[in-house]
From TrEMBL:
This is Arginine--tRNA ligase. Its EC number is 6.1.1.19. The gene is argS. It comes from the Bacteria. It is found in: Cytoplasm. Signal peptide: none annotated. It comes from Actinacidiphila acididurans. Keywords: Aminoacyl-tRNA synthetase, ATP-binding, Cytoplasm, Ligase, Nucleotide-binding, Protein biosynthesis. Coiled coil: none annotated.
Length: 591
């Protein structure tokens, strides 16, 4: 494995060196190199530098140009406008750099020099409850970020902080004690296992809730049951486990549909921190971070106030002695930094929990559980909206069932795939398999291509459209390359030829291919998967233009040009494939 520096990175280095040579005091100045339409790259850093050095920017730019080493990478360099540097790289440098990428199974993408340990908290549905679109976002975004970090060499520990604890469980377990057959499995041959589990849980939940609201005696017995659960009473624990297991059948069926791998060992829900809660509170109290207020153990913040101007505390222990969500999250921080030795903690959670995480992180810092060398970040995501622009709900005002949504996406996608698939002679099985990969890909892509904080409208028509910023469009570009090679019947040899001149569309495609590693590095530091999504969409678009403008098999330049174009096509397919894998999206060979 050999990592390859992008042309943009090597130019950046050279221009930096030239800047430093022209203005010795500017040794670490950023040349601000960007891709540009005028030339291949434009460096704007001279302007700021000239201002500081009180020099004429165009003159200074000229000096920088003169200091640039002459070699075969740079084909042209000129000063433009008030003092920009326009830089053009040679065709041969583009092809040679891509050739080095093609040699490497990682496409030349470097591994982090000093990888750390990241714990990422995502895909955290709640036991005995239906999953909703919010859980979809957390799962899809978290899965992509985890894969991208891992690809960069980071050690990633996944944590699915499922809601499997709390007072609700007293009610559910007590109901199960009094209605022992409620979760019995009946043999029904073709029923979807996940759906059957959810409907049993739903019945249990509704039954328990109704009784809880109507019957004081049951309410009291449920409260006592919570105490038994926290004390680890064996009968209570066994019933709790039964409810959790039932829910996992349902979760796994949804994740299976979503084509997301969840490992049982990574599911460490709220219950997993139960044994730490008392100690967490004691430590906070002893350190003076938390104080008793109105019977509850609270942490106060100078900058967190309610509408009335009164401070809003983080409650770690309630007045009734119970522990809340915050105590669990604080214990999880202790576990993740103290036991798992994480340097980075990520939480892919709805933006509505922003204040909660701010308070949890502040508290953990004061308590010393988060030190200066640990980064803790809440990656807040926005809301999925319905066609009416309001949070996505059914007509009856309930949240939309995730499984139904996914089924519908697959159905729509299959219709789209069928139309073309029949023309190219796909079998029914192939159409079904592709429909699933296209439909699920479309849902994930729509989510991932939206920048994290933004809301988006769940619009299936747009998501499965062949034209536009969709995964289907990208998948088609991939399949197109595959079809070129299929038609060649194994005789086509992609090979780079740096001596072959490149057409404009080839240069644009090539320079973009070369930026794959830089894009991934950016995503790994910003935690913004939409940057990878847009990179891939742009790659597919550039390939489409190349394909329209540059005949591959009938290239005028003869064998070397044919091979070079095959080489570009093949590297495009490999890059699209690798990028989509990191987003959790499949690439059917024939579409
Ligand atoms: N189960 C929660 C929910 O559905 C999300 C948990 C987020 N993670 C955490 N560590 N608090 O809203």
């Amino acid at each position: 494995m050999a990592s390859v520096a992008s042309l943009s990175a090597s130019l950046q280095q050279r221009v930096s060196a030239a800047l430093a040579a022209a203005v010795p005091s500017a040794a670490d100045a950023d040349p601000l190199l960007r891709r540009s339409d005028r030339a291949d790259f434009q460096a704007n850093g001279v302007l700021g530098l000239a201002k500081r050095a009180k020099a004429n920017p165009r003159e200074l730019a000229g000096q920088v140009l003169a200091a640039l080493p002459a070699d075969d990478v740079l084909a042209g360099a000129e000063v433009s406008g008030p003092g920009f540097l326009n830089l053009t790289v040679s065709d041969s440098a583009i092809t040679a750099n891509l050739a080095a990428r093609a040699e490497d199974p990682r496409l030349g993408v470097p591994l982090a020099a000093e990888p750390g340990v990241t714990v990422i908290d995502y895909a955290q549905p709640n036991v005995a409850k239906e999953m909703h679109v919010g859980h979809l976002r957390s799962s899809v975004i978290g899965d992509a970020i985890a894969k991208i970090l891992e690809f960069g060499g980071e050690r990633v520990i996944r944590r699915h902080h499922i809601g499997d604890w709390g007072t609700n469980f007293g009610m559910l377990i007590q109901y199960l004690v009094e209605h022992p057959h409620e979760l019995d499995h009946t043999e029904s041959a073709d029923a979807d296992a996940g759906e059957a589990s959810m409907s049993r849980l739903d019945r249990l939940y509704k039954g328990a809730r109704t009784l809880f609201d109507a019957d004081e005696g049951f309410k009291e017995r449920s409260r006592r049951r919570v105490v038994d659960l926290q004390a680890g009473d064996p009968e209570t624990s066994a019933l709790w486990q039964q409810i959790v297991d039932e829910s996992k059948i349902y979760f796994y069926s949804v994740y299976d549909k979503l084509d997301i791998d969840i490992e049982d060992a990574d599911i460490v829900g709220e219950s997993g921190y139960n044994d730490m809660l008392t100690e967490t509170c004691d430590l906070l109290e002893k350190a003076g971070v938390a104080v008793w207020s109105n019977g509850a153990l609270c942490v106060f913040f100078d900058d967190v106030k309610g509408k009335d101007g009164e401070p809003v505390p983080l409650i770690v222990r309630k007045a009734d002695g119970g522990f809340g969500y915050a105590a669990t999250d604080l214990s999880a921080v202790r576990n993740r930094t103290g036991d798992l030795h994480a340097n980075t903690l990520l939480y892919v959670v709805d933006v509505r929990q922003a204040l909660h995480f701010k308070m949890v992180f502040d508290t953990a810092r004061r308590a010393g559980w988060l030190t200066d060398d640990v980064t803790a970040r809440h990656l807040p995501f926005g809301t999925v909206l319905g066609p009416d622009g309001k949070p996505f709900k059914t007509r009856a005002g309930k949240s939309v069932r995730l499984e139904d949504l996914l089924d519908e996406a697959v159905e729509r996608a299959t219709a789209v795939v069928r139309e073309k698939g029949e023309k190219i002679g796909l079998t029914d099985e192939e159409i079904t398999a592709n429909g699933r990969q296209v439909g699920i890909g479309a849902v994930k892509y729509a989510d991932l291509s939206t920048s994290l904080g933004r809301d988006y409208v769940f619009d299936l028509d747009r998501m499965v459209s062949l034209n536009g910023d969709t995964s289907v469009y990208i998948q088609y570009a991939y399949a197109r390359v595959k079809s070129i090679f299929r038609k060649g019947g194994g005789d086509l040899k992609p090979a780079p030829h740096p001596e072959v001149p490149l057409a404009q569309a080839e240069r644009a495609l090539g320079l973009h291919l070369d930026a794959f590693g830089d894009t991934l590095a950016e995503v790994a530091t910003t935690y913004e998967p939409h940057r990878l999504a847009s990179y891939l969409f742009q790659l597919a678009s550039l390939f489409t233009t190349f394909y329209e403008q540059c005949p591959v098999l009938t290239a005028e330049g003869g064998a070397p040009q044919v091979e070079n174009r095959l080489f570009l096509s093949d590297l495009t397919a490999r890059t699209l494939h690798q990028g989509l894998v990191l987003l959790g999206i499949r690439t059917p060979d024939r579409l």
